[in-house]
# Entry
Amino acid sequence: MKNATVGFLVLVLFLSLGSLACPTRPGPSTDAADAAGGEGGELGTDASAGAGTAGNTSAGGTAGQRADGGGAGAAGADVGGSAGGAGGAINGAGGAVGGGGGAGGAASTGCSNACSSTETCVGSTCLFKDGQQCTLANQCASEVCTPFYQDVDGDGYGTGPAIGFCGTTTPVGYAAQTGDCCDNASNLGLARPIHPHAGFQQTSAGGVCGVTWDYDCDGTIETQFSTGQCGPNPVYPTCTPEIIYYPESDCGTTQGNTTCFAEVLMGTQACVGGSDTGGLMGCK
# Structure
């Protein structure tokens, strides 16, 4: 027991002397000044602590200068606003290479508030998309505000006050042209053929919207056919016919058609009147 105690004391003394003879060399410590910024600090070779320069408008900052103390790279700024990522050097003999700068933030959309589903952001303003009602062109993203007119019967002609819509496409239920004299009739089948520039019709509108035969809304009634009787003094060989229009009372009835033409009868040149079966009289 006594010999064991002595041996233990000798071992402790030996270990204590060894630790004094061979001191442990301290390792490098992390610099507390590690900071956001550059693409990376280079290895340090002198004692001065150099700071990295500021980043440009692209992602991340530039590299930090050489520094034995481990200079921190400067923060990289971006047009979107956020700075670059972490990347300071480490203290000690020769700083370690710093981490790369992070990407800059996304650029702003310009509109501080979210635009609605009928709008789009232009610059810093929410403007109407095409097809939305407008009163001024500067309310529209397309910068075009076109007047249209309500067209209930779908004949391509509207009536009433003009209503503006963004763009140039005609909205459903509207027309680019106005002047319809029958648009709100309960019988759309009769109202549809009544509009400016309408063609001849062979049946009466029956008084819908106050119209009987004035289908083209010009305030007068025109007959489709006219007589072509030879005048009192026809000139051969042109034989120009004398135009006589049928009366309004003949609209929608079958009428013969007369004409005037050149002919040689028994060696005599003359303008001769003729007729055919005609047809159903159309009016507008």
About this structure: The mean pLDDT is 71. Residues 109 and 273 are 81 Å apart (CA to CA).
